[in-house]
Amino acid sequence: MVLIKEFRIVMPLSLEEVAQMYMVMKMQQQNTSSTEGVDVLENRNFEDGLFGKGRYTSKVYRLQRLLLGLVVLRQPMLSRCKRKLGTHTRDAKQCPYFTSFTLTIETIHRADNGHSENVHGLNKQQLADREVEIIDIASTSDDYWSYVIGSNTVDFSKFQSSRTARGPLLEGWQDHCKPVMTAYKLVTVDAPYWGFGSRLEQALIAGERALFLESHRNCFAWIDEWHGMTVKMMCDIEKQSIPLSHEESLSSPF
Predict the structure, then answer these.
(1) Nearest alpha-carbon partner for 156 in 179, 135, 139, 143
(2) Across the strands, what pairs with 56?
(3) Where are the alpha helices (DSSP H) in the chain?
(4) Are 226 and 22 in contact (CB under 8 A)?
């Protein structure tokens, strides 16, 4: 059974800011070691009919430390991601040794507070199958996956950016903060394996939710680090800090 879940994450940011780019880069750096981390195979500009102009990135994830108990995902994961800054991202993940397994995360950013419906253009059947959950970055979770993945301990009810004066995030903050945007994340997972496929799909959904909460909490917590940076500045830093993998990586089984 294919699971479809849409997470809506309201952020006190604007579409033009580079918060997401900075967060992705910094979290990759924090989770990279000699045995685990992210290998970047491709990182280039592209243009097509769906996205227009954007950035294409191909990466191999080796993050077994964060995937305890999921034997299928102890293998490296290939991620093919297309992104158009501030508006649209599509990330498709596959495992080369389990070819029927797919995990797709499609993100659309809107300058609203989470009340837009069907931003992904789903058909009638997909809408019937879809479950929607709103994630509040000012909250924390104590479930298993949040315990494994989460490390951000900032209390946003007391936090205020020294450079922008944004914050604190008090009850109901999503309805009156400016600037504001929402990340609409559509997660589609299909693990058609008898005996464990359904449990794997549920675990992946829970794991993605915990990762979304952690990463978007980091986005806001690091605001004084990235505020004022431009896309060009981010691209220059990216080239210096996350070099392409060695040529032998391109001959991997992906």
Answers:
(1) 139
(2) 44, 82
(3) 19-30, 124-129, 144-149, 197-221, 223-226, 231-241
(4) yes
Report pLDDT digits (tens) over 88-145.
Answer: 888 988 777 677 888 999 999 999 999 999 999 999 999 999 999 999 999 988 777 7
Q: Residue 22 and residue 30: Cα distance in Å, rounded?
A: 12
CA dist 56 and 238 (Å) reads: 14
Burial zone of 44 (CB within 10 Å; 0-12 exposed, 13-18 middle, 19+ buried): exposed
> pTM of this prediction?
0.84
β-strand 37-48 against 181-190: which pairing, if any?
Answer: unpaired
59 lies in some domain: no
Phi, psi of 184 (to 5 degrees): -95, 105
Q: How many domains does the chain have?
A: 1
Contact 140, 159 (CB under 8 A): no
As a whole number of angstroms, the distance between CA 222 and CA 237 comes to: 16
Cα atoms in the Cβ-side hemisphere of radius 13 Å centred on 123: 1
Write the CATH number for 102: 3.30.530.20
Residue 64 lies in a domain: no
Distance CA 182, CA 164 (A): 19
At 247, list the tokens.
Answer: 């040529």
**What are residue 185's phi and psi, to 5 degrees?**
-110, 115
